[in-house]
Design a protein that fits this description.
Blueprint (H helix, E strand, L loop, with lengths): L1 H17 L5 H7 L5 H9 L5 H7 L5 H9 L5 H8 L4 H8 L6 H7 L5 H17 L2 H20 L1
Helix pairs in contact: 1-3, 3-5, 5-7, 7-9, 8-9
């Protein structure tokens, strides 16, 4: 019977670690645990304290570092440390992240690993196309034409 209780307690801790409404002092306490899955959930939580993200960015487990790289609240200073991470998987995750500034993606385009560099170049190309004023004008014009079309129907 004890394993069932432990499993449920572990599931509850995972939910608490992932919940953005979890109080900061609880997240700080969870950051002291040794469970990699729990730390991964915590690293993805946008409410995770900045010092916790900084600590997790240096964790030995690369999946935890990847989770930090996906967190939209991770400060740019931490992101730049991950740009030079020893793990190509961490750098690849960064190269795929469309929320990063273009300067960071450009930096990753120079990565020594050809897969990481190619992924960053792909992301950079997609982002520069999406962020051009011409694209924004086209989208706006399409929306206006759509509204006119539906109003006339």
């Amino acid at each position: 019977m004890a394993p069932v209780h432990y499993r449920r307690a572990n599931e509850l801790m995972l939910l608490i670690a992932a919940n953005p409404a979890t109080p900061e002092h609880v997240l700080k306490q969870l950051a002291t645990e040794d469970d990699p899955l729990l730390l991964e959930q915590l690293a993805e939580n946008p409410a995770a304290p900045l010092h916790t993200l900084a600590h997790l960015a240096g964790h030995a487990n690369e999946r935890i570092r990847v989770a930090v790289s996906h967190n939209p609240k991770t400060p740019i200073e931490i992101i730049y440390t991950l740009v030079y991470d020893v793990s190509a998987d961490v750098r690849y995750a960064l190269a795929s992240n469309p929320l990063l500034p273009l300067e960071v993606i450009q930096e990753i385009c120079q990565d020594e690993n050809p897969y990481v560099a190619a992924r960053a170049q792909q992301t950079f190309g997609r982002l520069t196309q999406e962020r051009t004023p011409a694209t924004n004008i086209t989208i706006t014009l399409q929306n206006i034409q759509y509204k006119k079309f539906t109003a006339a129907s």
